Amino acid sequence: MKRTLTGILAISGLALTLLPSMLVFSGAISTQTNKWLMGIGMVLWFTMAPFWIRRAR
Amino acid sequence: MILDKLTARLKSVQEYEKEPVPASRHKSWRSFLGMYAGEHTAGTEFVIGPLFVAHGASAGDLAFGLLVGNLLAVLSWAFLCAPIAVKERITLYYKLEKICGKNLTVVYNLVNALMFCFLAGSMIAVSATAVGIPFDIPLAKLTDWLPSHVSWVIIVLAVGTVTTLVATLGYEQVSRFANIASPWMILVFLAAAIAVLPELGVKSIADFWPAAESKIWTGVPLEGQSKFTFWHVMFFAWFCNMAMHIGMADLSIFRYAKSWKAGFTSAGGMYVGHYFAWLASGILYAVFLQKSQNSLEFAPGPIAYYAAGITGAFCVIIAGWTTANPTIYRAGLAVQAIIPNSKTWKVTLIVGLVTTTAACFPALVMRLLDFVALYGLVLMPMGAVIFIDFYILPRLGLKSDFAEKAGIGINWAAAGTWIFTLAACLFINFSFGVEIFFLGLPGWFVAVVLYIGLSYLFQPSKQLKPNLS
User: Across the strands, what pairs with B91?
Assistant: First the structure.
């Protein structure tokens, strides 16, 4: 259960890193919003991924 | 307490420098995929991609040149380096000691370690351009060689210290760090490039290629930069890691592989890092040039910060680390082969200090393409020596691992091959004006012919140790 949760959060971090840039490209969000979302994605990935990967091993 | 734990951890770092890696420590292809993708989606990519733009590579030349050059690099890892690594399962330096003798290996290791230090130093410098953003340090120019500001030196020293401390913890730590950072870094490269495309007039996918040709890779070099063609791009992509594949430095890495096929995992590094990341960083630099009206200032940190905010800056820092860490570690192995009884972590610490000092000079970043090409070229002849020694000499009735069997300190066939190959490359460069990016190919064949010829000349005159021959 914990592994699933950390996995979902870690993947969400990666999604927040990439997907907002596509929204900028399509004109749906501003570049400033994109930078904030990428920042949140970075924090999620680096806080969750180590636990997720360790549990997966 | 923490210090005790750290000391115990450092003492337990065991990297099998002088013995074959046991089966229990072999790693699956996934471990190498993570490492290669991480190592080659790294700090250098933030420099090389923009330098292609600065050298006026056209969009078509870049797209096809990278496709072919990276394929040749993957094949070099898979068919030249990895098969020897999994059969021998010893470090490059120990293998060289057996072939070339202790004394020549010492010389090789010194040259190798120095090259690794400079390469890692350039990556520490790249990281420092991002760390320095809050301090508003003046940006270096493409033509700069010396540090221009004391605050730059202080930041480089800080980044270098942290990078070195991570590297002292050994391959396991480096691999783990690269594995975690790698997928995120790749996405940051892509995301940053996608987000700035509208600033180049790209509103749909159909707009991309015309904008690529007219605004990003225009085919016109910046002031003071030489012009790059398809051949420059292809040979650079193939040979930028020449020391690792054809030069056999990655024997030390693939000795942990379960199968030689792990060599193909280098494709992860080549096509993600040396293709998409180079294109992505080129796009970011094109936006910078457009905004700055073709300014010669160049610093990857601020460029990434403009495109992706704080995430971009962190990406540059971490990208620099994931290149600098394994490179410092490799340099540590090179030096340790000279001083066999020294601890890996102590040697790595010293190497890190040298690297950090080198990182203070912007020339390492601004002339990175030339340096990377030189670095591969200088070490390439010994890779050719290992290849011929392993596959060809036994078939010709000559002895492999000649120095070990003859009990000599220098195998003059290998020494002559190294010196005369580099002399031949220098001659081709000066006499025919062939640029450094292209010298590796003729140089490899020169080395092959020389080593076979010189082995015929030197081997029969030596009395082999009876028990080993």
Answer: none
Residues B349, B350, B355, B357, CA torsion sign? positive
**How high is the pLDDT of residue B335?**
79
Q: Which residue of B has its CA nearest to A23?
A: B195
What is the rounded CA–CA span in Å between residue B172 and residue B177?
9
Tell me the domains of chain B and their CATH numbers: 23-369 (1.10.4160.10)
What average pLDDT does the segment B325-352 reach?
78
CB-based burial label for B367 (10 Å; 0-12, 13-18, 19+): middle
Specify the amino acid at residue A2.
K
User: Tens digit of pLDDT for each residue in B101-157?
Assistant: 989 988 988 888 888 888 888 888 888 888 888 777 777 777 777 887 888 888 888
Closest CA–CA distance from residue B208 to any residue of chain A (Å): 12
Q: Closest chain A residue to B310 measured between Cα atoms?
A: A39
- Residue B198, judged by CB atoms within 10 A of its CB (0-12, 13-18, 19+), counts as middle
Query: How far apart are alpha carbons B215 and B148 in whole angstroms?
Result: 31
CB B133 within 8 A of CB B304: no
Mean pLDDT (whole number) for B364-370: 85
Structure token pair of residue B349: 């610490």
Q: What number is the ipTM of this complex?
A: 0.94
Rounded alpha-carbon distances, angstroms, from residue B448 to B55, B76, B418, B441, B459: 33, 16, 10, 11, 16
The pTM (predicted TM-score) of the whole model is 0.86
Closest CA to B56 of B232, B198, B193: B232
pLDDT by residue (tens digit) across B227-244?
A: 999 999 999 999 999 988
Q: Average of pLDDT values for B425-441?
A: 94
CB contact under 8 A, B184 and A22: no
Residue in this structure with the two tokens 């080395």, named with its chain if needed: B447
Query: Residue B125 has what pLDDT?
Result: 86
Write out the E strands in B241-338.
none
Distance (Å) from the alpha carbon of A54 to chain B's nearest alpha carbon:
10
Residue in B180, B192, B197 nearest the CB of A53: B180
- The Cα B195–Cα B197 span in angstroms is 6
